[in-house]
Amino acid sequence: MKNDRNFFNCSRCPAYCCSYPHIVVTKADLKRLAKHFGMTPDQAEKKLTKQGPEKGQRALRHKSDETYGTICRFIDSETRNCTIYHARPKICREYPGSRRCGYYDFLSFERSALDDPDHIATTYNK
Known about the structure:
By secondary structure, the protein is an alpha+beta fold. It has a domain at 19-95. Helices cover 29% and strands 13% of the residues. The chain has helices at residues 27-37, 41-48, 90-94, 102-113; strands at residues 24-25, 49-51, 58-60, 62-65, 69-72. The strands form two sheets. It has a three-stranded antiparallel sheet. Strand 2 and strand 3 form a beta hairpin. Helix 1 (27-37) crosses helix 2 (41-48). The longest helix is centred in the C-terminal third of the chain and has 12 residues, at 102-113. The protein is elongated.
C-alpha cells in the first residue's frame, strides 16, 4: 500500500521556501502567470521576473520582508500565503520534492524546544 502522507504543513510555515533568492520560472510558468494577470508572456517576463542565476534563466522578483529580508513578491506579508497559488510556478508546485520539508522539521523542533508555537526560525546572514 502506497503512503502519500506528507510530513510537513505549509499552513504553519512562514513561507521559508518563498525566500529563496532564485525562484526560477519556465516558459510555461510565464504563460500561466500572463494568463492569470491578463497580459502577454513577454509583459509578464518583464514585469514579474528578473535575471536568474544562469544565462537566459528567469526568476520571480522579490520584495522586502521583515522575516527573511526579501521574499517572493507574491507572498501576502500578513498571512504568509501565496497570492497567486493557482498560477504559481512549477518549482513551487513541486516543492519540497519529497514527503519531508527540512525547514518544517527544523521549525517544528524549534517551536517545541522553545515551547513557543509561533516562533519563526530565520536564516542569519551575518
